[in-house]
Amino acid sequence: MMQWEKRTQQKYDLMVAKIPLFHREITKQVVPTKAEENAKARGASAIEEADVIQAFLTEVPKAFYSMMIRLMDDVGFNHRPFTER
User: Fold this and answer.
1) What pLDDT, in 10s, does the model give residues 57-67?
2) How far is 1 from 4, CA to CA, in rounded Å?
3) What is the C-alpha separation between 79 and 27, in angstroms, rounded?
4) What are all long-range contacts of 75-83, with beta carbons under 8 Å and residues at least 24 apart?
5) Average pLDDT, the chain
6) Based on the number of CB atoms within 10 Å of its own CB, is 25 exposed (0-12), middle (13-18) or buried (19 or more)?
7) pLDDT at 84
8) In this structure, are residues 62 and 27 in contact, taking their beta carbons and an 8 Å threshold?
9) Contact 15, 74 (CB under 8 A)
10) Which of 80, 76, 74 is nearest to 7 (CA)?
């Protein structure tokens, strides 16, 4: 498993804790995997905030989009560069 930037890991952990229990386990499986793929694709040595945000945006079903954006706002993920196009 690839290293995470400390603050990114903290925000991710806080966000996961706020996700409804019945979605939490699947989130913990798919988002870190995709975030690591994103970081590797950039040639990075650590998972950064943008990698995690993009993982959430691509892996979480659209039905949960508004909840996901609200939770990103709650924990301080800056999703706007990726969601306001």
Assistant:
1) 999 998 999 99
2) 9
3) 17
4) 75/11, 75/14, 75/15, 75/18, 76/11, 77/11, 77/15, 77/49, 77/52, 77/53, 78/49, 78/53, 79/53, 81/50, 82/50, 82/53, 82/54, 82/57, 83/57
5) 95
6) exposed
7) 83
8) no
9) yes
10) 76
How is the chain classified by DSSP, letter by letter?
--EE-HHHHHHHHHHHHHS-HHHHHHHHHHHHHHHHHHHHHHT-SEE-HHHHHHHHHHHS-GGGHHHHHHHHHHHT---HHHH--
Q: Please give the structure tokens belonging to residue 21.
A: 């229990």
Return the residue matching tokens 């659209």: 62
Task: Please indicate, yes or no, whether the overall pTM of this predicted structure exceeds 0.70.
Answer: yes
Q: Any idea which residue has 């966000």 for tokens?
A: 15
Which amino acid, residue 61? P
**Which tokens hold the place of 37?**
């793929």
